[in-house]
What we know:
This protein is an alpha+beta fold. Helix content is 23%, strand content 25%. The strands form two sheets. It has a two-stranded antiparallel sheet. A two-stranded antiparallel sheet has the order 2-3. The radius of gyration is 10 Å and the shape is globular. The termini are close together.
Amino acid sequence: MAKKPVVEQDECVGCGNCEEICSEVFRLNDDGVAEVHDPEGAREDKIQEAIDSCPVECISWEEA
């Protein structure tokens, strides 16, 4: 079963780590918090690296 990254935006502190590592998938929105703009924009290992970089652990995988 496929999985996709999700961001718990109410927990995001807007550090930008995920966007810096994997801008193909993550970006900061107008409110300054991370969002997924293309869940299939990068390889799974690169997305996982961005997930692991989150200091508040607000990014995770969800079954698609």
